[in-house]
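Quick review question:
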């Protein structure tokens, strides 16, 4: 089972186990990780699951599609490594993934 590390803006870390095929958002919700609201339930329509994928994981996590880009463009804290956690799906390749959580979601 792949592990994902979520790091809060204050440095607090949350290591969780995630099922293959589950979204990074759902893994956070299932493990009560703060800072992932998921108001739209993972439909890529609210950006309340915004995360910053650590740089070394960007090639593996992939790039946002057009719909995700549109949602991220509305986010004032968007960075080059921003993604919506609902659009990143867990695979064995993502075992050890590290994402940072933006302060405004707390």
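Suggested answer, residue by residue:
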């Amino acid at each position: 089972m792949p592990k994902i590390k979520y790091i809060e803006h204050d440095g607090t870390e949350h290591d969780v186990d995630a099922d293959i095929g589950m979204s990074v958002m759902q893994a956070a919700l299932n493990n009560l990780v703060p800072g992932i609201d998921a108001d739209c339930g993972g439909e890529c329509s609210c950006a309340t699951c915004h995360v910053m994928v650590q740089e070394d994981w960007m090639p593996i996590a992939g790039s946002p599609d057009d719909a995700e880009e549109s949602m991220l463009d509305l986010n004032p804290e968007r960075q080059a490594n921003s993604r919506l956690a609902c659009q990143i799906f867990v695979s064995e390749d993502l075992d050890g993934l590290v994402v940072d959580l933006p302060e405004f979601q707390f």
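Why it works: Residues 3-99 form a domain with the Ubiquitin-like (UB roll) fold (CATH 3.10.20.30). The chain has a mean pLDDT of 95.
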